[in-house]
Amino acid sequence: MSKIKIHVFHTGSVCVSPAVPFGGEHCSTLKASGLFLPQSKRIWVPVSCYVIEHPKGRIMVDPGWSRAMSPKGELDKAAQIKELGSRLLYRVNQGVVPKGEAPSEHLAELGLTPADLDYVILSHLDCDHAVGLREIAAGHPKRILTSKRELENATSRPRFNPMWWEGTGLETFDWNDDQGPAHHSYDLFGDSSVELINIPGHTLGLCAVKIKNADGRFVLLFVDGGYAAKSWQEMIVPGVGVDRAAQKKSLEWIREQSLDPNCLESLATHDPDIKPHVIEL
Length: 281
Ligand SMILES: [Zn+2]
What we know:
- With about 280 residues, the chain is an alpha/beta fold.
- The chain is built from 10 helices and 13 strands.
- The structure holds zinc ion (ZN).
């Protein structure tokens, strides 16, 4: 099999309460929201987006933020409230997307347009992963997928806004394999080279992406299952979670995978220590 290439990009950054990444299992929703936290106490973390060049197809994982929410590459309150469709969500997390860092701009850097994507995968439907979807969907990628469980979970909770994905052609997948802590996964190409693995907790349908080559070496994108290597090294669950027991179990699985000698890299979406780079598998 020819090589798999994984491009790790940042679509800008997001400003959140420090309780979001490392709040632990007893963190309340109010504390994680940071609604009463002064701006000076908040932290900025990157919002990663991935493009996988695989012999069987080109995949984007999580578009991230969009150009429309940061038109000049700076914090733009009005543009962001419009894109989020919510003032409350703006208070919970603000984003900045410097010029060149919007998802379609990263594709252009690779000489690609959204139409060159065979799949856009949404690990879950939180705003900092899904708001950029409309920007990518406008360029007609072939298929846009998230788990059935995630869409069901998102349509019943105020933390999500369907305007981020409605009209984009988003499809859902049901589990067709049993990898991971919940024994729920989706084998994208039917050869387990790209497996979307349910790691419930932060959201119910959250999926990590495990990309494996013919030698068994793999890269794990554990998205918001943790916020840095420290999360699984010290077993600190994120402050935002809808099922704490499942979230802990998922983090244990992430730890086990990350310590596997075949694991080349194990990456969280919002880890400040991760710089944009390319991985060859
Ligand atoms: Zn996130």
